[in-house]
Structures are given as structure tokens and as C-alpha cells.
């Protein structure tokens, strides 16, 4: 049976991450469909790095990514807001103390 | 897997996940049978409105009104289809390009159009659209693409004029879309705009080269300009008073400027370029208006635009037929790749079990 006819059996979705240059993290740039990992890599090269946009590519099946809950104002991140002492500005240091 | 936190889970709607697009977020599967509520509960609508008002981006997993999602899917799909169909008018000249240099440039340009289509399909999928389904809708004529690609490319000068006018108009349209309220769409537009600039410049340079050539070449350029000018103005869509959905799209910041505003911007941008090139734009009403600080120009033939959109343009059938044939003739490649991947996966499983 063809992938076309079965519809849902089309090539799986991959997310693509590109390292722009040495010293930078891989950054998510988009997604694509491919039959397998090797094809996903070559397609990612053709699609997302036609103009020297990267020196390294990661691809990962979208279904393998676990994500936090849906909203950016999510309670999941709430605990990070109430610990002001984690920030350097929390501490009062006199102006005349050098190099701090 | 992260557990749904208390309070956040009461009214989970079927929101696609940027990471598992078109499927349900794992943590919402228990609610899979529930349809999204007609009215957004728990201040979700307010949160959405506030995000738009603050000029922040809506991201795939945020709650969004149904109309917003549907409008975006339609607009992004139509945009993607335009890029894909847009490969054809110029692609027809790849084998007939006058030099290896022009051939290589044209190849790169047409490849970019394919890339743009794929970035956009990828963005549409973050809204829950299915790529095979989008392709099917295009092939069956249930979704539209830009009217401009239904005009023929009669001479090599058309390749230059398409780069100059059509990609120039696309830049006018698309630069503001880089600030569209929907994150994945805006990000795709940033990539696309960078590449469109190459397209426009290569077109203009091609025309400058021809204008330095023989009288016959200059005539070819003027002829192409005459044929493409009005269809290019139509690319911005119907006039504002006949564009019923525009206001809502502007309120949602999916769209940033009105059709007429963008059209005028395109004319203002193009007139001095035409002068430099030494061609005449085929509009007797075109003149500079001191008072408004813009050009006055004639009215495109809106009946023609409607005819072309409805399928009765010079090349509609040819474009659709070509797309359909390419899809059908590529089926065996897709099937073979799927079969190969399945075989490799089975081998790997067997190896792991042994």
C-alpha cells in the first residue's frame, strides 16, 4: 500500500536544529518530513543551510520530544519567579567596593 | 513526561504541539474526545488578546481562537502553494537559459522557491494542518495560490521581470509579515525575505544586462514589463473596500498593512527603478503627486483578477496539471523510501533482539 493512500503512514515529521557557527548552540529552525534519519539530515541540509547557515545539524523525530505544558505563563515556571536571591541584583553592595 | 499541574488541566483543548504537530500533546490525551469549548474558559481569550496587544508572539501551543487558527492555516497554506507553483513559470527557462551563469542562478532561485514552500508548510503544520492534506487540497483545487503564477513566461526577459516585479511585490508583502503575530509564520518570513532580496536583485541585474544589449533585447524587456506590470499590482489583492477579511486579520496582527497601502508602496518603490532601467511602465495615469508624496496610478482590471482567481487565467490548467503530474510521478520515490526505511528499521530491531 502506498504512503499516499494510507495518508497517516506518510513520512514522519522531524524537527531540525542548526549550529550556526562554532561556539554557538544548536537552534531550532523548523521541521521537515523524511523517511528516515539519514534522509532527514540531507533534506535539512538542502532546506535550511543553502547559504552557509550552519556547521552542524541535529534532526530528531518530533514525537520523541517531551515538552513542558502549553503556555508561557505556565505554573510550571512559577517557582523561578519567587527566588529573587538567585539574582546578583538582590545583594546591596556599597558603590565604593571595586570589581564586584 | 511532565505531569499536568493543578489548575492548568481543567479545560485542556486540542492544541497542537510544536514538537508533535498535528497530534495531541501527550499530556492532553485524556481529554482527546472533548471538542474545544465554544467560549474560551479561564481568561484564555483575555490572555490571547493581551499577548497580541503587547505585540508579543503567539506560539503553537498557546490557546488561540478558532478563527485565528483557521485564518492562519488558510493564509500560510495559500502562501506555501504559491511558492511551490511559483517554481513553474521560471523553471520552464532553466533548460533554455542563455548561459551557464544564468542557468546556475535560475536553478538556485527555483530551489529557493521550493524551500520557501517547505518553510511555510512546516509553519502551517504547527497549527495542526497535515502536509499531505495540504498537498491534496492544492492538487484538487480546493486551496488557492497567487494569481500571478497563472501568467505565461514568453521570453527570457520574463525571468528578469518576475524577479524585479513579482519578487519585489513579494518583498513589500512579506517584510511586514516578519512581525506577524504568529511566531512560526513570522520566523519563516524572516528566512524568506533574506532570500527574496537575492531574487529581486538577480532579476534587475538580468534586465540591466539585456538593456545594454541589442534593440531586440531592449524590446523584449519592455514587452515583458508591459505584460507583468498589471498582474503584479493585482498580487496585493482586491482593493481595501472589497477585502472583507482584512480588518480582522489586521486586528489579529496577522496582517500589518492594507492591500492598497502595500500596492502604493510597491509603485513608489518601482517607479524610480524603472527610470534607471530605461523602461516605461504601461500606465498613462502614473504620475508623481506632490501633495500626497506618493504616485497616483491607474486601477488594475479587477474583473481579470477575479477571472484568474476563479481558474480562468492563461495558465491555470497547465500549472495545476504540472503539479499533479509531478506529485503522481514522484509517488514511486516516496514509496520506495518508505519501504527502505521500514526494512532498515526491521533489520535494526532484529539485530537488537539477537
TrEMBL record, chain A:
Cited Pfam families: PaaB (PF06243)
Top-level taxon of the source organism: Bacteria
Lineage: Bacteria, Bacillati, Actinomycetota, Actinomycetes, Kitasatosporales
The gene coding this protein: paaB
NCBIfam families (alphabetical): PA_CoA_Oxy2 (TIGR02157)
Cited InterPro entries: PaaB (IPR009359), PaaB_sf (IPR038693)
Protein name according to UniProt: 1,2-phenylacetyl-CoA epoxidase subunit PaaB
Amino acid at each position: 500500500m502506498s504512503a499516499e493512500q494510507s495518508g497517516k503512514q506518510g513520512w514522519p515529521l522531524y524537527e531540525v536544529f542548526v549550529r550556526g557557527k562554532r561556539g554557538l548552540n544548536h537552534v531550532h529552525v523548523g521541521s521537515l518530513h523524511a523517511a528516515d534519519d539519514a534522509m532527514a539530515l540531507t533534506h535539512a541540509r538542502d532546506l535550511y543551510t543553502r547559504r552557509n547557515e550552519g556547521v552542524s545539524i541535529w534532526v530528531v523525530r518530533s514525537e520523541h520530544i517531551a515538552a513542558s505544558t502549553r503556555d508561557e505563563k505556565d505554573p510550571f515556571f512559577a517557582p523561578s519567579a519567587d527566588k529573587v536571591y538567585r539574582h546578583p541584583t538582590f545583594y546591596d553592595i556599597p558603590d565604593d567596593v571595586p570589581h564586584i | 513526561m511532565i505531569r499536568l499541574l493543578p489548575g492548568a488541566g481543567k479545560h485542556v483543548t486540542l492544541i497542537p504541539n510544536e514538537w508533535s504537530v498535528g497530534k495531541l500533546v501527550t499530556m492532553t490525551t485524556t481529554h482527546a474526545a472533548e471538542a474545544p469549548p465554544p467560549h474560551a474558559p479561564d481568561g484564555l481569550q483575555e490572555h490571547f488578546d493581551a499577548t497580541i496587544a503587547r505585540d508579543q508572539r503567539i506560539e503553537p501551543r498557546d490557546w488561540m481562537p478558532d478563527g485565528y487558527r483557521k485564518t492562519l492555516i488558510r493564509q500560510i497554506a495559500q502562501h506555501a502553494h504559491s511558492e511551490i507553483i511559483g517554481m513553474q513559470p521560471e523553471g520552464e527557462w532553466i533548460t533554455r537559459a542563455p548561459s551557464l551563469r544564468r542557468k546556475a542562478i535560475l536553478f538556485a532561485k527555483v530551489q529557493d522557491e521550493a524551500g520557501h514552500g517547505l518553510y511555510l508548510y512546516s509553519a502551517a503544520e504547527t497549527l495542526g494542518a497535515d502536509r499531505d492534506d495540504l498537498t491534496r487540497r492544492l492538487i484538487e483545487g480546493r486551496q488557492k495560490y497567487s494569481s500571478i503564477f497563472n501568467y505565461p513566461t514568453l521570453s527570457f526577459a520574463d525571468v528578469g521581470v518576475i524577479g524585479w516585479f513579482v519578487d519585489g511585490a513579494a518583498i513589500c508583502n512579506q517584510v511586514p509579515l516578519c512581525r506577524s503575530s504568529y511566531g512560526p509564520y513570522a520566523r519563516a518570513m524572516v528566512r524568506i525575505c533574506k532570500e527574496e532580496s537575492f531574487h529581486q536583485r538577480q532579476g534587475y541585474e538580468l534586465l540591466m544586462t539585456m538593456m545594454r544589449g541589442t534593440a531586440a533585447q531592449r524590446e523584449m524587456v519592455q514587452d515583458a514589463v508591459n505584460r507583468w506590470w498589471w498582474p503584479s499590482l493585482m498580487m496585493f489583492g482586491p482593493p481595501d473596500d472589497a477585502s472583507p477579511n482584512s480588518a480582522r486579520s489586521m486586528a489579529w496582527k496577522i496582517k500589518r498593512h492594507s492591500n492598497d497601502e502595500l500596492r502604493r508602496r510597491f509603485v513608489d518603490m518601482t517607479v524610480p527603478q524603472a527610470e534607471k532601467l530605461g523602461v516605461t511602465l504601461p500606465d498613462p495615469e502614473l504620475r508623481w503627486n506632490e501633495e500626497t508624496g506618493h504616485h497616483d496610478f491607474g486601477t488594475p482590471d479587477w474583473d481579470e483578477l477575479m477571472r484568474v482567481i476563479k481558474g480562468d487565467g492563461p495558465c491555470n490548467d497547465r500549472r495545476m496539471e504540472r503539479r499533479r503530474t509531478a506529485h503522481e510521478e514522484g509517488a514511486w520515490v516516496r514509496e520506495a523510501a518508505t519501504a527502505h526505511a521500514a526494512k532498515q528499521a526491521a533489520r535494526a530491531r532484529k539485530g537488537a533482539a539477537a
